[in-house]
């Protein structure tokens, strides 16, 4: 009533009556009476903070009004998209949360120089496509939803993007059908072959030898920028966390339908920290070890774990640069790329460093190896090129793994040791080695969002799931539930690209993951978030129960115990 117009007695009486009805319809008198009585009884120091919390609990649920996207750069300085979620809070529209998308096209992550060198134009197209999706079809399906409807939002977003992709794939197929020749054109692959001089007969160089092979199985069409699916899902979890005051890991636990209580001890994931990169893109001849990860002992507190990993990482760097000199490369994420000619070279480096630091391999420090076997498979030979010029069949490669485990028993996990197209060999591998180390599948099981139509077909000890591209938080929760029902280990992997804000730590803790493939040591926010989660839970428990030393109620996972004792065969 900003006006100073004098009201007549009748108008004033009508106004008072409308006010009474308005307050009664909204329960204001009863709430005011209750909060004022409680305020006097409890006599808090912060009177208005107490009143604020009380009325905040009675406020209307936050409703999403729109989502938007902004071009930005990730932690590697490459173009990507920031997803922003807006909603009505206290009757006003505000930006509730944001998340930077890990938009790294398939095959680029940790791949060859050519694969990593995506053009700026293509990245710009991915960003533009993601922003367009957010501000049109995707934004339309989430607008008006409450922040507690995360699973429904995930499902709606995935469905609408999939429908767009199906329509576009159908259109492209029709265009291709009208222009393609009558017989399929085989793929042409160039391989290197040394030639001999016609005069001396000596090898003088390389020429390209053309090998004809059948076209690969067509992959489903994906819209440019569809990685905003995972980014939006993570942003919605942050929105709900900010609006309810619950930590993000508790919200993730709710989504996965797992037990969520302050009285239940949390099981912290053990980080798998990448220190070496190798594979086809490395300068050395060995291809079998694409990624070598340090896995510390499971009974350490999080700060002790971080200190141990940092110490080993620094010592490895000093040893590698001293041994290989300028030939050692460093990735954008500060992982060492030594020019190793055999996988054993990298494992010996770890042994030597641990000896120098007075650490025991197999107890204080273990190792996990990402083999990425699908990347070293030579299709025309039907074998794996584990070392340049040396190829092995799947059966022979299993024997290679067995020999490595015999000589280096501190290897506790092999990731993607075979292609997913060889399920029988996965069975043989597990029967031979799963009682000695974890056989983990990542690329071999694909994204959980497709498990409904393409369920995992390989036998393994556990899954690694990365919350990037089209994989929503709901999808990761489903994968964790499936792994638990089958008695398998579950590992959450950090996305390549994006910005490290520690969210993946909440995801791993909320889902009860045995391990967190945390990436390189430069992901400071992830390690700090793990320490914060552990410390906050301990402080609550100590204040309520008078507990002793931090860590007394943090329990190792059943699958983590495999690092210290003989593993049960899978």
Could you give a short description of this structure?
With about 575 residues, the chain is an alpha/beta fold. Helices cover about 40% and strands about 20% of the residues. The chain has an eight-stranded mixed beta barrel with strand order 6-7-10-14-15-16-17-18, surrounded by five helices.
Task: Explain this structure.
The chain has 570 residues and is an alpha/beta fold. The chain has 16 helices and 18 strands. The strands form 5 sheets. The protein has an 8-stranded mixed barrel, surrounded by 5 helices. It has a 3-stranded antiparallel β-sheet with strand order 1-2-3. Strands 11-12-13 form a 3-stranded antiparallel β-sheet. Helix 15 crosses helix 16. The radius of gyration is 28 Å and the shape is globular. The C terminus is likely disordered.
Considering the chains and any ligands shown, give keywords for the structure.
three-stranded antiparallel beta sheet, 18 strands, 570 residues, eight-stranded mixed barrel, globular, disordered C terminus, 41% helix, alpha/beta
Topology summary:
Layout: H1 9-25, H2 28-42, H3 47-58, E1 63-73, E2 79-89, E3 92-100, H4 113-116, H5 120-135, H6 137-142, H7 150-179, E4 187-196, E5 203-213, H8 228-244, H9 248-256, E6 270-277, E7 291-296, H10 302-324, E8 329-330, E9 336-337, H11 343-356, E10 365-370, E11 377-378, E12 383-387, E13 390-392, H12 394-407, E14 411-415, H13 423-433, E15 438-441, E16 462-465, H14 473-485, E17 489-493, H15 503-510, E18 515-519, H16 524-545
């Amino acid at each position: 009533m900003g006006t100073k117009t004098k009201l007549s007695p009748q108008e004033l009486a009508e106004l008072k009556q409308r006010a009474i009805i308005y307050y009664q319809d909204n329960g204001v008198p009863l709430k005011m009476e209750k909060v004022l009585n409680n305020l006097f009884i409890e006599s808090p120091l912060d009177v208005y903070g107490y009143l604020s919390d009380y009325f905040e609990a009675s406020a209307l649920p936050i409703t999403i009004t729109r989502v938007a996207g902004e071009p930005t750069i990730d932690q590697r300085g490459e173009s990507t998209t920031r997803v922003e979620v807006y909603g009505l809070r206290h009757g006003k529209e505000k930006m509730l949360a944001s998340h930077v998308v890990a938009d790294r096209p398939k095959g680029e992550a940790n791949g060859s120089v050519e694969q990593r060198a995506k053009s700026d134009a293509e990245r710009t197209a991915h960003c533009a496509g993601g922003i367009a999706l957010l501000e049109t079809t995707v934004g339309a399906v989430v607008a008006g939803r409450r922040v507690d409807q995360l699973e429904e939002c995930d499902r709606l977003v995935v469905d609408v993007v999939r429908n767009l992709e199906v329509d576009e794939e159908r259109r492209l197929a029709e265009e291709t059908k009208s222009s393609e020749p009558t017989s399929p054109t085989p793929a042409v692959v160039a391989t290197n072959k040394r030639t001999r001089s016609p005069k001396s007969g000596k090898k003088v160089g390389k020429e390209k030898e053309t090998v004809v092979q059948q076209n690969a199985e067509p992959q489903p069409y994906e819209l440019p920028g569809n990685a905003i699916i995972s980014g939006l899902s993570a942003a919605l979890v942050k929105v709900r966390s900010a609006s309810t005051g619950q930590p993000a890991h508790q919200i993730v636990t709710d989504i996965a339908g797992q037990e969520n209580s302050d009285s239940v001890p949390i099981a912290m994931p053990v980080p798998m920290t990448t220190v070496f990169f190798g594979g086809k893109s490395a300068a050395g001849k060995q291809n079998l070890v694409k990624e070598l990860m340090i896995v510390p002992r499971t009974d350490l507190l999080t700060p002790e774990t971080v200190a141990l990993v940092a110490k080993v990482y620094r010592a490895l760097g000093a040893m590698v640069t001293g041994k290989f000199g300028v030939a050692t490369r460093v990735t954008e994420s500060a992982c060492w790329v030594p020019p190793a000619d055999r996988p054993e070279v990298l494992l010996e480096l770890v042994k030597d460093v641990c000896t120098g630091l007075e650490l025991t391999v197999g107890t204080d420090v273990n190792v996990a190896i990402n083999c990425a076997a699908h990347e070293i498979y030579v299709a025309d030979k039907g074998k794996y090129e584990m070392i340049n010029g040396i190829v092995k069949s799947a059966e022979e490669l299993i024997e290679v793994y067995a020999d490595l485990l015999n000589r280096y028993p501190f290897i506790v996990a092999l990731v993607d040791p075979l292609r997913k197209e060889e399920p029988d060999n996965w069975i043989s591998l597990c029967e031979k080695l799963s009682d000695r180390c974890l056989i983990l599948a990542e690329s071999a099981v694909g994204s959980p969002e497709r498990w409904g139509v393409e369920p995992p077909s390989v036998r393994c000890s556990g899954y690694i799931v990365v919350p990037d591209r089209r994989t929503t938080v709901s999808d990761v929760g489903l994968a964790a539930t499936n792994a638990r029902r089958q008695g398998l280990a579950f590992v959450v992997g950090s996305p390549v690209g994006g910005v490290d804000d520690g969210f993946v730590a909440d995801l791993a803790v909320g889902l009860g993951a045995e391990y967190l493939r945390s990436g390189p040591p430069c992901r400071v926010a992830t390690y700090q978030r793990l320490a914060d989660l552990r410390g906050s839970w301990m402080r609550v428990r100590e204040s309520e129960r008078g507990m002793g030393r931090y860590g007394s109620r943090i329990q190792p996972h059943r699958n983590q115990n495999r690092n210290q004792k003989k593993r049960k065969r899978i």
